[in-house]
Amino acid sequence: xxxxxxxxxxxxxxxxxxxxxxxxxxxxxxxxxxxxxxxxxxxxxxxxxxxxxxxxxxxxxxxxxxxxxxxxxxxxxxxxxxxxxxxx
Length: 88
What we know:
It is built from one helix and six strands; from the N terminus they run αββββββ. By secondary structure, the chain is mainly beta. It has a single domain (3-87), classed as Jelly Rolls. Strands 1, 2, 3, 4, 5 and 6 form a six-stranded antiparallel β-sheet that branches. The longest helix has 10 residues, at 3-12. The protein starts with a helix and ends with a strand.
């Protein structure tokens, strides 16, 4: 998905303006967010593990996490940069 389409989609789904997130290579232990998150990968890669299953997202991919979903995050060798919409 391209950036403009992603931003329009977020707005149509009631998300506020997205924020830019940058993470260095590495991992984040299991955690949750008190908000629903939808993000468009701009560069690098991120692996998100939910219930023991990892999905890897690369530029152009979109991930969606409902609020309060326990998950782990793994950032690729070059880290990751993404636009994140958060609501709730």
